[in-house]
Amino acid sequence: MLKAALLFILAGIAEIGGGYLIWQWLREGKTWYVGLCGGVILAVYGIIATFQVFSSFGRVYAAYGGVFIVLSIAWGWWIDKKTPDMYDIIGGLICLVGIAVILIPRSG
């Protein structure tokens, strides 16, 4: 489970970071190579996800969606300096519960 968690976090940082660089290029007027770096990082994100230990693509991406939400809230707080409000925190906690439910080991 530790490997899965680390891969989810690494994929999230790559996806959010790559998207952020493209945002900086297109919305904030940064140079084109900032956007290019963002695109390369987004491609790396797609590769990272394939290293997950779970066999179901849908289950991996469903659980990752919750991780992405939580990491996006954290990114906004740490990078954009936007403190999450009570609703952000509650929503993030709900996502963490959803991740746990999706990844609960079960037979069949």
Automatic annotation (TrEMBL):
Keyword Ribonucleoprotein: no
Record carries keyword Repressor: no
Subcellular location: Cell membrane; Endomembrane system
Region forming the signal peptide: none
Sorted UniProt keywords: Cell membrane, Membrane, Transmembrane, Transmembrane helix
Protein's name in the database: Uncharacterized protein
Domain of life: Bacteria
Family: Belongs to the UPF0060 family.
InterPro entries, sorted: EmrE-like (IPR037185), UPF0060 (IPR003844)
Transmembrane spans: 7-26, 32-54, 61-79, 85-104
GO cellular-component term (any): plasma membrane
Membrane topology: Multi-pass membrane protein
Matches recorded under Pfam families: UPF0060
